[in-house]
Amino acid sequence: MKTTNVKTAKNKLSEILRDAQLEQVVIMNHGRPVAIVLGVEGQELAHVFGMGEDLTQLKVRYAKEVAAKRPERAVTQEEMERRHLRRPARAVAVKRRKKAA
After folding, report:
1. 26/33 Cα distance (integer angstroms)
2. Is there a contact between 84 and 59 (Cβ–Cβ < 8 Å)?
3. How many domains does the chain have?
4. Could you tell me the pLDDT band of residue 18, with boundaries at 50, 70 and 90?
5. Alpha helices in the chain (DSSP H)
6. 76 to each of 62, 73, 85, 87, 89, how far by Cα in Å?
7. 21 with 46, same domain?
């Protein structure tokens, strides 16, 4: 597994996409992993979209492991919903045009 930082990933995206076809590339930000680039060349589109479910399960398992190791960082489901679920949109004031004199 190859790692790179965000700045390098931004500047060398084409190279990282080529590398991702051979091995996973982890993008780090300040020493923490923030993304994984997976090559999907030659795979069916339905399979690629199905991979999202597998990644979600991986994220859940990782979150549970972190919560078990560091209970002070554990968050309740209600707190997660409050932080991450979409909030209702605010009403936007409509600007009225002045009538032409």
Report:
1. 6
2. no
3. 2
4. very high
5. 6-11, 13-20, 45-69, 77-84
6. 16, 10, 14, 18, 24
7. no
Mean pLDDT of 2-30: 94
% of the chain at pLDDT higher than 70: 83
Return d(Cα 1, Cα 36) in angstroms, integer. 10
Domain containing 13 — which CATH number? 3.40.1620.10
Distance between CA atoms of 10 and 8, rounded to whole angstroms? Answer: 5
Q: Residue 49 corresponds to which tokens in the numbers above?
A: 């979209």
Global confidence as pTM:
0.49
Residues 28 and 56 in one domain: no
- In contact, 6 and 34? CB cutoff 8 Å: yes
66: domain range?
Answer: 42-78
Q: Are 38 and 20 in contact (CB under 8 A)?
A: yes
Does 88 score more than 70 pLDDT? no
Q: CA 7, CA 91: separation in Å to the nearest integer?
A: 37
